[in-house]
Amino acid sequence: MDEILDIVNENDEVVGQELRSKIYNDGLQGNRFIRVANIFVFNDDGLLLLPKRSQNRRLYPNCYDFSCGEHVLSKESYDNAAERGVKEELGLEDKEIEFLGKLGQKDGVSGFMQIYKIKSNQEKYEYDKDGIQKLKWFKISTIIEMIKKEPNKFKGDLLPVLKWYLSKGKEE
Fold first, then answer.
1. Where are the domains of the chain?
2. What is the pLDDT of residues 83-119, one digit of tens each?
3. pTM above 0.70?
């Protein structure tokens, strides 16, 4: 089923709605953006869980992505999208989700996003085997080095968000 997303302006104010498929087929023109919730999943050792997207993904195939990323549906809050995303994408329920901050284009990211963090030491996660090849734990410093060497193996917004996270003194 196709999702309906809010289209927002440069102030994150809703200016319309559109089917997700149409947005990704036609693109967004001018000062029109979408909203996403991105969640970092850390374990007690300070390692960050990253999924590697499947080769059959239209956008960023074979690339590492946020632990969990979720489009904010029309009339949905960022917080609800984050909660829904970790349940749908990783099978995590009843975890405390910590809000870290909000970013926009001025921060070097593609749209409006709120960033969250969850602690989890689960050994196995439920995830979409068609959309994700594998999940792997990394040190943030290792991820940054990997991105510097091979940026095309990572989703575009990941590096600016990690740099923002580190600038806030959030090193695990």
1. 36-167
2. 999 999 999 988 899 999 999 988 989 899 999 999 9
3. yes
